[in-house]
Design brief:
The complex is a heterodimer. Chain A is mainly alpha-helical. Chain A is 44% helix and 9% strand. Chain A contains 10 helices and 4 strands, in the order H-H-H-E-E-H-H-H-E-H-H-E-H-H. Chain A has a 3-stranded antiparallel β-sheet, with no helix packed on it. In chain A, helix 3 crosses helix 9. Chain A starts with a helix and ends in an 8-residue tail after the last helix. The N terminus of chain A is likely disordered. By secondary structure, chain B is of the alpha/beta class. In chain B, 30% of the residues lie in helices and 15% in strands. A 4-stranded mixed β-sheet of chain B has the order 6-7-8-9. In chain B, helix 5 packs parallel to helix 6. The longest helix of chain B has 19 residues. Chain B is globular and about 60 Å long. Chain B starts with 12 loop residues before the first strand and ends with a helix. The chains are: A mainly alpha, B alpha/beta. At the A-B interface, helix 2, helix 3, strand 1, strand 2 and helix 5 of A face strand 1, helix 1, helix 5, helix 6 and strand 9 of B.
């Protein structure tokens, strides 16, 4: 199937983020179903780079060059517009960012993350808290009825949405487009609740084991030794070098994806962090 | 200031923790080749240390779990507003001499829920739902039995889950939870919600998930629920984090479940702050492209 699709579409068919390219994700996932040992994780993260980051970078550069050509063409007509091209300004809201966390299980080193988000201005807006249009209890009672009604409507398992649309019915599991008069939310423009920074914590198990053994050798009992040796520490923060993120807006992630696509040094650091500084390699 | 004369100080921070996988069979000093459950180690590298070794394939020792949660309690509890906890609270099914049972899975999940409650609940209030730090758990593919298989409720599993998470799931949502095991918590009432999504209903490896096209599919019903809830949150001008165990990747979610889910995450970009997931164990991010998902949906029509 994969070979057929590649032949049909070309290796990088237009806008075809062929799901097949993440095959190794499934392989890796299947391999670890029965255990925690990491398998093919470098292959997986390389595929993430190829499938997502490289394609975004390639779109960004083609968009930038289109803009640049257009500006060059217009330069003589209107010099006032001769600003530095902004790569994909206004183009990032097609993206939504999914963050996948490192785990406590020592597949790599144990880890978790603390997110920081903007709460400034919340005090002044708290006065509107009580203005609920409807209590949640009522909402959920009505919701149950609505979903039951939706499900009771004629079942059409053949041809799915096409058949639904032909029959004039709407597939309610497909959202309507966001109304154009709504402003972008905290993921896109800085505002209340926008994530601003994160701190990634990890437990360096080698270091902990060394300290634990040393403490036992020093005559501490097991609990004292564990208390002395066991600690989480900061692995990195989102604003740390070598790719500090000013904030955690979607645009910042897209910028980072573009950088990671082009810069091998940054990519090496990114993968080191992806594997929780465990030194993992396939 | 909250209703009922209560107040809460916000820190502007929250914790995301995932895939703890504690293993009650883990025994320090046993053989890694025997999943750290038994056997004499062949050499130093085969010996199971007390807190584990990265990449050796064993699950978390109970000590690793306990010391991790204690570290969180001592160092983070009073610095955070809420906890997003995205599941997998039980060992892998990797030992043929100790196959997992449904009751073991329930028991350890219940213990973990109690552990989180104890850490984050208000110790001065007898109300079990009064948390200093709200906890929003979601279900992992290892938390269900048989492995990966999870159907719409009400079933024995959803009933057990409703019981063990009864203090986490808001009261008015418990009936809906017993059916769909998704819910949300207003971590800042009227302002900010965290939505816990039952991603196993979209998960390709769940044998009960085929597509999200048919009304009989759990994923279809989940997306219906999601749509109504997002619309209501929008109407209340609230913002929301989406959370769950299995991240929305094309190879994790059934094809059109993935595209439909991507569309919801993007068409509600006026209120959705982002998505927090676990399962993969790798720290990274994925930009989902709604334009491509619209094309895929239109093409399939």
């Amino acid at each position: 199937s994969k070979a057929f699709n590649e032949k049909k579409n070309g290796e990088f068919g237009d806008d075809d983020d062929s799901d097949d390219v993440l095959d190794s994700a499934v392989e890796a996932s299947d391999a670890r179903i029965m255990g925690a040992k990491p398998v093919n994780k470098v292959a997986y993260i390389e595929k993430v780079r190829e499938t997502y980051y490289n394609k975004i970078a390639s779109k960004a550069s083609s968009f930038a060059s289109r803009r640049s050509r257009k500006k060059h063409k217009n330069k003589n007509k209107n010099d006032k517009n001769n600003k530095k091209p902004t790569h994909y300004k206004g183009k990032v809201d097609r993206y939504s960012i999914v963050t996948v966390a490192g785990s406590v299980i020592p597949t790599f080193n144990p880890a978790f993350r603390v997110w920081e988000y903007n709460i400034s201005g919340l005090e002044s807006s708290c006065s509107t808290n009580a203005m609920h249009t409807q209590e949640w209890g009522t909402f959920f009672d009505n919701l149950e009825t609505k979903i039951e009604q939706d499900l009771m409507e004629e079942e059409n398992t053949f041809g799915w949405a096409g058949a639904l649309w032909r029959s004039g019915k709407i597939d309610k599991t497909i959202p309507s487009r966001m109304p154009t008069d709504l402003p972008l939310g905290p993921a896109y423009t800085p505002q209340l609740f926008t994530p601003t920074r994160f701190v990634q914590y990890y437990a360096d198990l080698k270091d902990i084991e060394r300290k634990y053994s040393q403490a036992l050798d020093d005559g501490l009992n097991e609990e004292e030794a564990a208390a002395k040796a066991f600690a989480y520490q900061v692995e990195y923060s989102s604003d740390d070098a070598p790719y500090p993120m000013k904030s955690l807006l979607t645009k910042d992630y897209i910028d980072l994806a573009v950088e990671l696509a082009y810069n091998e040094t940054l990519w090496t650091k990114f993968t080191e962090r992806a594997f929780l500084s465990s030194g993992y390699d396939d | 200031q909250l209703s009922g004369g209560k107040s809460k100080t916000l820190r502007g921070r929250f914790l995301h923790i995932t895939d703890i996988h504690p293993d009650p069979f883990y025994k320090t000093g046993t053989s890694v080749a025997q999943m750290c459950h038994r056997g004499k180690p062949e050499d130093k590298s085969d010996r199971a240390p007390r807190f584990g070794t990265a990449m050796n394939g064993c699950d978390s020792s109970m000590d690793l779990m306990e010391y991790t949660l204690k570290w969180v309690e001592d160092n983070l509890r009073d610095q955070i507003d809420f906890v997003v906890w995205t599941g997998d609270n039980i060992r892998h099914d990797n030992d043929r001499r100790n196959p997992r049972t449904e009751s073991q899975i329930f028991d350890l999940n219940a213990q973990m829920a109690q552990r989180f409650e104890k850490i984050f609940r208000n110790p001065d209030n007898i109300d079990p739902r009064d948390f200093d730090v709200e906890v929003i758990p979601s279900l992992g593919n290892n938390d269900v039995f048989p492995h990966n298989l999870f159907s719409l409720g009400p079933t024995l599993q959803t009933r057990e889950l409703t019981n063990m998470w009864s203090n986490f799931v808001p009261q008015e949502q418990q009936r809906a939870f017993a059916r769909g095991t998704s819910y949300f918590v207003e971590v800042i009432p009227g302002k900010l919600a965290v939505l816990s999504i039952e991603t196993l209903y979209l998960y390709k490896a769940n044998p009960l998930v085929d597509t999200c096209n048919s009304k009989k599919e759990p994923g279809y019903q989940l997306l219906l629920w999601l749509g109504y809830v997002l619309e209501e949150l929008r109407s209340r001008n609230m913002k929301v984090w989406l959370t769950g165990h299995v991240p929305p990747l094309p190879k994790n979610y059934d094809g059109n479940c993935f595209h439909k889910y991507t569309l919801w995450t993007n068409e509600y970009r006026d209120i959705i702050i982002g998505g927090l997931y676990g399962h993969m164990n790798i720290d990274h991010f994925i930009p989902l492209d709604a334009k491509k998902s619209w094309k895929a949906i239109e093409k399939s029509n």
